[in-house]
Amino acid sequence: MRTLSTLMLLALLPACGGPPADRGYAGTARYEYQLGVEALDDNDYVGAINHFTMVKNKFAYSQYAALAEVRIADTWFAQDKYLQAVDAYRLFVQGRPNHREVPYALWRIGVAYYEQMPSDFFLFPPAHEKDQASTRDALRALEHYVERFPKDERVEDAKKRIRTCREELASHELYVARFYLNKERPVSARGRLEGIVAEYADLGDLWSRSAALLVEVYLDLKLPEEALTTAKLIVEKAPKSDEADDMRGFLRSVGKL
């Protein structure tokens, strides 16, 4: 026969980590979801996926099903499995376009691509010399997020990442242009430099260096009008730069200043 103290202990078990007193549909969904969150916090990724998948499949009509879909993506992200994370976030956004977690999911898609960008690890070539596919993907995703949700709390973070992406892409274009010049292919270099001048005027020194190099390319290609126009543009947009000083000297030398 059970003692009174044993019966009291059994009565307390549900409140001490067991299933909730509410064993109904919503209560069980909430309980399984919370277990998944705890597993994710503890880096138990297999356990987290199992709990979130159960909520998603068995409690599809509860509010926790949608949250479980996002947390599944978070679990992939936490393991640095960014391709799986992007796929999971996108499925969530496509399936639940009006859910309150959509801004977060779109931001995380951009961050997942951002995390795959080339790094400047000292044993390898600089990041700007490597393939920039992930950088372009990150830029598109982050710009899409900012455009759709300009007042979301993570927008400032996204804008900082967008600038980094743009700097990497412009640096890559400048690297390729210099490569072409070293190979005596000024026409190919011209296209890369013109792209930087047209698209990256916000990047300060990198832009002015590229524009000054473009002036040299124009002169080499016997295109004086294009050289003059670009020189004036440098003076106008980057008046305090060293390149602007050089362009003023060039313009004075040809009687255009």
Structural write-up:
With 257 residues, the protein is mainly alpha-helical. Among the domains are: 15-78; 185-257, no CATH class. The protein is built from 12 helices and no strands. The chain has helices at 4-12, 25-41, 45-58, 63-78, 82-95, 102-115, 133-148, 155-182, 186-199, 205-220, 224-237, 242-253. The longest helix has 28 residues, at 155-182. The radius of gyration is 28 Å and the shape is elongated. The relative contact order is 0.05. The model is unreliable at 1-17 (pLDDT under 50).
Summarize the structure.
This protein is mostly helical and 257 residues long.
Can you tag this structure with a few keywords?
257 residues; mainly alpha
- The arrangement of helices and strands along the chain is HHHHHHHHHHHH
Q: Report the span from N to C terminus.
A: 106 Å
Estimate what percentage of residues fall within beta strands: under 5%
Could you describe the largest sheet, including whether it forms a barrel?
none
Q: How many separate helices?
A: 12
Radius of gyration: 28 Å
Helix content: over 70%
Uncertain regions spanning at least 5 consecutive residues? 1-17
Apparent shape: elongated
Query: What is the mean predicted local confidence, pLDDT?
Result: 89
Number of strands: 0
Structural class: mainly alpha
